Amino acid sequence: MLADGTHEHLIDNETWQKAQDRFIKNKMMYGKYAGEKKPSEFMLQGLVKCSSCGSTLTRSVSGSMQCQAYTHGKCDVSHSVLTAKLEEMVLSTIEINLKHRNISLVQKAAPKAENQNEVIEKQFIREKHKLIRIKEAYENGIDSLEEYQVNKRKITKQIEHLQDKKNIRRAEPKDELTKKSRAEQSNAIEQLRNPDISAEQKNILLRTFIEKIVFDRVKNQVQIFYYY
Ligand SMILES: [Zn+2]
């Protein structure tokens, strides 16, 4: 399962802020129920799937959720559950998963950092090759001495810049990234439990690290599929 690659960390402040900004902007520009999509009316909207048929659970009678297919007679197993009860189940499951670290959420930042290092390394090698090529161009009489010197200065500057980037990246050990992510996650739980934060905002937050939640009514349990 792959997460949106543009997120540096799981739920970094920037992403969270951007999502909020976009949401507020939409609301202001198009009114309450317009914009990119209809705002979620409850935290788990669109995220919970029926364990029998895979359909999404939607709001049924007040305060409850039900398998959409069951409502239309296409699923045999009722998944009716109180929304508040399901929300609590999901939040405590996330908490337990985080505590026991049987999810690899925290590792998301690390491979990303490695990728970034690879990108810098590739750029670095490319610039080094450029240096060789301009030298050849000068030696073969294609470039004048002046052209060679200008190009050399430009490329050398770029190499220094990349070298700085490499040093900075090395100075930030994986441990620090992991700690940071973990702190961000416990912050996420706080936000999800905060009554002052809207259902729409909580739904956005959940979608930054959860792909889907499968609810099994018979076993009375949820299985959470995280992005990692
Ligand atoms: Zn179903």
Write a short abstract of this structure.
With 228 residues, this protein is mainly alpha-helical. The protein has seven helices and six strands. It has two domains: 13-100 and 195-226, no CATH class; 108-175.
What does this structure look like?
- With 228 residues, the protein is mainly α.
- The chain has 7 helices and 6 strands, in the order H-E-E-E-H-E-H-H-H-H-H-E-E.
- The chain has helices spanning 13-30, 68-71, 83-100, 109-139, 145-171, 174-193, 199-207, and strands at residues 48-50, 57-59, 64-67, 81-82, 210-216, 221-226.
- A 3-stranded mixed β-sheet has the order 1-5-6, covered by helices on one side. Strands 2-3-4 form a 3-stranded antiparallel β-sheet.
- A hairpin with a 4-residue loop joins strand 2 (57-59) and strand 3.
- The site of zinc ion has 10 residues, from helix 2.
β-strand number = 6
Strand content: 5-15%
Mean pLDDT across every amino acid position: 79
Order of helices and strands: HEEEHEHHHHHEE
- Taking all Cα atoms into account, the compactness measure Rg is 25 Å
How far apart are the termini? Answer: 7 Å
Largest sheet: 3 strands, mixed
Helix content: 55-70%
User: Low-confidence segments, ≥5 residues, pLDDT <50?
Assistant: 1-9, 30-35, 104-111
Using the alpha-carbon principal axes, give the shape: elongated
| Hetero compounds | zinc ion
> What structural class is derived from the secondary structure elements?
mainly alpha
What is the count of structural domains?
2
